[in-house]
Amino acid sequence: MDKYNKIIQELIQFRNDRDWEQFHDSKNLALAISLEAAELNELFLWKKDNEVENINKDHLKEEIADILSYTFLLAEKHNLDVFDIVSEKIKKNAQKYPVDKAKGTAKKYNEL
């Protein structure tokens, strides 16, 4: 938890030092997450099956960091603990995707 709190404080300090909080409303943070996710997808665009696991790791790290940074800022803005909300989602998904029905298949929960 200390690492999480530390990174949140670093993100806030970075943002505040540049007076960017004015741009970080929920809509813009959500859009930024979406755009950064698109940049992550671009790393894999047009790659063949044997190439997708060998993409540039530095670029991969940068895009994941961008997505997480905006996600952390959006969660912090709404006083959400990312660990709690991910844990809650895992529990919900466990109900939607019981092991006996979902194991080994990529079917959506309503198709199981």
TrEMBL record:
InterPro entries: dCTP_Pyrophosphatase, DCTPP. CDD domains: NTP-PPase_RS21-C6_like (cd11537). This is NTP pyrophosphatase, house-cleaning of non-canonical NTPs. It comes from Flavobacterium nitrogenifigens. GO terms for biological process: nucleoside triphosphate catabolic process. Gene3D superfamilies: MazG-like. Pfam families: MazG-like (PF12643). It comes from the Bacteria. GO terms for molecular function: nucleoside triphosphate diphosphatase activity. The lineage of its organism: Bacteria, Pseudomonadati, Bacteroidota, Flavobacteriia, Flavobacteriales.
